[in-house]
Specification:
The chain is α+β, with helices and mostly antiparallel strands and 85 residues long. It has a single domain, classed as Alpha-Beta Plaits (2-Layer Sandwich), CATH 3.30.70. Helices cover 38% and strands 22% of the residues. The chain contains 3 helices and 3 strands; from the N terminus they run βαβαβα. The longest helix is centred in the N-terminal third of the chain and has 13 residues.
Length: 85
Amino acid sequence: MSPSWVLIREVAGELQAEILRGLLEANEIPVLLSQEGAGRVYGLSVSTLGRVEILVPSQYVEAAKSIMADYESGNLENLEMDENP
């Protein structure tokens, strides 16, 4: 049975969407990005054609929203990186 995908955020442009996808996937949350075809082809980041929807499986919605809230509030900026190569 395939997961039920839930829209958690809509952002302007593919670049911002990819940043957020990376953040969520780094926290082991599967992500699906959806954008109007013309917006993707022409690389638009404004208007409705430039909007990108960020979707996650329903069981990850709360965790994803929490991570996004931490990101937006700057709580992720001071995390120490693992120094092991």
